[in-house]
Amino acid sequence: MFSNIIYLIFLLFVNPVLLASSCKEGSNNCIRCDPITKLCTKCTLDIYSPDEDGGCSASRKCYLGKNYCSECDEEEKKCEKCEIGFYPDQNGGCSFVDNCEISNKGFCLKCISDFILVGGENDMFKICKSLESEDLSNCKKINQMTGFCEECEAGFFLNQGDLKCSKIENCYESVFGKCSLCNGGFYLDKKENKCKSQSGSFSSCKVSLDGEKCDICDDDFFFDEKGVCIGVNFCMEGQYYGCKRCVEDYFLAHDKLSCTKEKHCYSGDRLNGLCNYCFGDYYIDLDTRKCNSNQKDNDFKYCKKVQNGKCISCDYEYNLSEDGKCSMTTNCAEVENGICEECSDKYYLTLDNRCLTTERCIYSENYYECKECEDGYFYNKTGKICSKFKKNFENCKSTSYDGQYCFWCKNGFYNNQTDHLCYENKEKNNFYKCSLSDITGKYCIGCEDEYFIGNKDHKCSKIDGCEVSENAEKCVECDERYCLNLKTGICKYNEKVLSEDEKFYFRCNKTNKEGNKCEICIDEYELSEDGLCMDKIHCTKEEDGVCIKCKNNREYSSCLNDDFGCVPTSYMKCIECNNNLDFNICTKCPKYYELNEYGVCIDIDEIYDDE
To answer: Exposed/middle/buried for 74, CB within 10 Å: 0-12, 13-18, 19+?
Structure first.
């Protein structure tokens, strides 16, 4: 003890600067202070070292091979040249990022003067962006996550398209102070360089060169004869939802969204006025785009589309037969109660009572192609036949339309998108219970029925919400909306309290090894002594470290729960909610409110008014 007093007297007279220093643990990057000298003895990161002011300063020590340095300046002890992909920083080390002042293990912690560090907390490659950048001109507040402007200086407006500051209100994108595109509901007056409201004769206008008439309409809008933008081409007089009257030699389609040259047209091409679909009892000739009656006793009765002189599509509830005619039942020889029982010659009845020319077909979804063939056969879409398995299509269920690739495999096999062949999805490999691989053939992207794909490990498991599985029965990492039970390897939903004995799953990320308490909560929640995840973020008042009042307003409504702290609720006027299975059942209301039988806070005046 006596020696310590002598040492203090020595410091006071010999080196008073040290005693003037102020060392505080947790500040100036210091985590350990000497109680006698008041100097820091240990710093937070290896790039810092104790200084004489009681804090920690960045070290300029440079060692070849350390911190990605390949060439050192022996006098300055600074790195002059870094490994490929790294840049010398101002601290004598190397960083992934150019214009960095201080880095640690290649990651930039601070940029040089007039530069800002841009990127999220978990971004590996952050960047140092110049504050003199053109897109930050007249910016008041920068979003450090994106590097773009978030708020402009007084007198400037933030463009939503390029996130630049402009003096032009309602401008979406600008170039060198000139607006090039306005926000929705506004048009660009190029003469005045202003964004004006789209109203009157400038309704649906995008650009006006002289400010007197519209020169460019909004997308999908056209000029009528008066130079007004409307949504229908060849329209003489427009109305709110379409066209009212077309120009000479054009007819208004029945949907009133197009003007066409065909009188019986239902809807047409707004650009060229050609008909796409005919109205009522008319068919469209796709070669001439004309509408003709389909009620006459001719080859096109009940037909809706004709091409190359042949009917290719029939009216509703009519089917195209082999001879190109439309009939109620296609290729059927015997019908009972509207269901085909026997097909015509050279046609085969499927299990779903359709007649196809496809022999050995057992199921189809339309009259033109087979969905599934008998065992030992696959459907070849090119020849539209059920073919016997050949070497390349072994275990294939159906081919692509060109007949070159397998499109769908049998159960127990997955389709490899590299060669489009079927491979067995054996147990204990990355493709177990897989039905489809990615284009590289390395990862599974689709599973068989009742199995779920892990978005991180690309494996199929029986566990809903599993991101990474140890095997098909056990998960090691769950989706953020699920909690991992370490004992069972099962993912449990964590966004609602489903039962009293499983309430520890609520807001939990991972349980303990016994699977009866939460061990790790999701971000922004704290673990209580009872193994439950508490919300203190939305707490507005505490007593002795315990929350007694929660945030409850139009922005965020929460009520106080004994187990979980502040929990979200649908009702603004609720103070406490202690029904663990339903937080929307309130148990305590504020002053001037009373609980009704449904657990909702009702204004007392409203109750008396009802009486």
So the answer is: exposed
* Residue 368 Cα distances to 312, 401, 496, angstroms: 12, 12, 48
The candidate with the shortest Cα–Cα distance to 246, out of 235, 232, 230, is 235
> Of the segments 102-106, 314-318, 361-365, 524-528, which one has the largest average pLDDT value?
524-528
Virtual CA dihedral for 596, 598, 603, 604, nearest 10 degrees?
-10
Digit-coded pLDDT (tens) for 13-47: 444 444 445 788 877 778 888 877 788 888 876 66
pLDDT of residue 69: 83
Residue 179 and residue 186: Cα distance in Å, rounded?
12
Put simply, whether the predicted model's pTM sits higher than 0.70 gets the answer no
CA–CA distance, 153 with 164 (Å, rounded to integer): 11
Residue 335 neighbours by CB under 8 Å, 6+ apart: 329, 341
With helix as H, strand as E and coil as C, how does 333-384 read? EEEECCEEEEECCCCEECCCCCEECCCCEEEECCCCCEEEECCCEEEECCCC
Each residue's pLDDT tens digit, 41-90: 888 766 677 777 777 876 656 666 667 888 887 776 778 888 888 888 88
Q: CB-hemisphere CA count at 13 Å for 124?
A: 0
Handedness of CA 584, 588, 590, 591 (dihedral sign): positive
Q: Break the chain into its structural domains and give their ranges.
A: 481-533, 535-611
Phi then psi for residue 425, to 5 deg, are -90, 75
